[in-house]
C-alpha cells in the first residue's frame, strides 16, 4: 500500500517547530510565576478542548448523518476512494445540515471525525467533492487535526501583549501552511487540477452557473492579493487567500514530484498513472473496487470547461 506523505509542503514542519520554539521561549523568558501559570493554563486549555471535542462529537452523533453505503451511497463511494488513495487512518465522515459551505475535521484520538456541511454536496460535483474530502483527509493524515487542538491551546497562553500577538500570528502562519499541504492531498484525491481549482472557486462563489460567472468569480479572487489590507489581514487568518491556494496548487501540479505522488495514490485504487479509472481491487481491501467520480455533464476537455486555466501562465 502506497502511504507516502511527501505532499506535505516543505516548510510546514519548520514553521511548526518555530512556532513551538517561540511558545517555549516566551514561557522560559517570562517569570517563574508566569511559567507555572502557563503550564497550568496549557493543561487547562488541553482539558477544555478535549472536553469540547467530546461534547461536539456526542452532539454530532444525534444530529448528523454518518456517511455509509446504505444511506449515502454516492458520498460513501467518494469517501472510500479518497481514503484508499490517501490512507489517512480511521476517519468517520458525517453529513451535517447547515446553511454554510464548510468542511472540517476534529478529534485527538481515532477515529477522527470529518464533517461535511450539506451545501457542499449540493453545489459541488463528485470530482470537486473528492478534492474537499481529500483536503480534509490530508489534515488527518498529516496530524494537523490533533496538533491543531494542542497547539491552539498553547498559542493562547497568557503572555505580554506583544508576545501574545506574535504567538497567535505564528500559530496562524502554521495553520495557513497546513492548508497548502491539505490542498495537495485534495488534488491527489481528485487527480485533476481543474476540479481542484473549481472546488476552491466554489467555496467563495457557490452559486456559479455559467462560465461567465465562473470567470467573474475568479477575477474577483485574483484581485484579492492586490489589496494591501488583505495581505496584512491574512497574517491573522487560518486560511490563505483562495487565489494564493489556487496558484500554489497550479505550481505543485507542474512538478515531477506531484506526478510521482499521483501515480502512487492512483495505484492504491488500482489506477494506472494518467488513467482516471480504477480497474482492479487493492490487496488489503476485499470489497469490490470502487469506481471514481463520474462527470455529470458530457465530457469536455478541461480547457473547454475552464479556458482561463489555459490562459494563465504566472
Ligand atoms: Zn483545511
Overall description:
There is one protein chain. This protein is mainly alpha-helical and about 325 residues long. The protein contains 14 helices and 4 strands. The chain has one domain. Strands 1-2-4-3 form a 4-stranded mixed sheet, sandwiched between helices. Helix 7 packs across helix 11. The chain is globular, with a radius of gyration of 20 Å. The two termini are about 35 Å apart. The C terminus is likely disordered. The site of zinc ion (ZN) has 4 residues, from helix 5 and helix 7. The site of zinc ion has 4 residues, from helix 5 and helix 7.
Task: Considering the chains and any ligands shown, give keywords for the structure.
single chain, about 325 residues, mainly alpha, four-stranded mixed beta sheet, about 60% helix, binds zinc ion
Secondary-structure class: mainly alpha
Instruction: Show unreliable segments.
Output: 275-314
Question: Major sheet, described briefly?
Answer: 4 strands, mixed
Radius of gyration: 20 Å
Q: How much β-strand is present in the residues?
A: 5-15%
Helix content: 55-70%
Chain-averaged pLDDT: 82
- Enumerate the strands of the largest sheet in spatial order, edge to edge or round the barrel: 1-2-4-3
Task: Please count the beta strands (DSSP E, at least 2 residues each).
Answer: 4
Shape: globular
Counted up, domains total 1
Bound molecules: zinc ion
Count of alpha/pi helices: 14
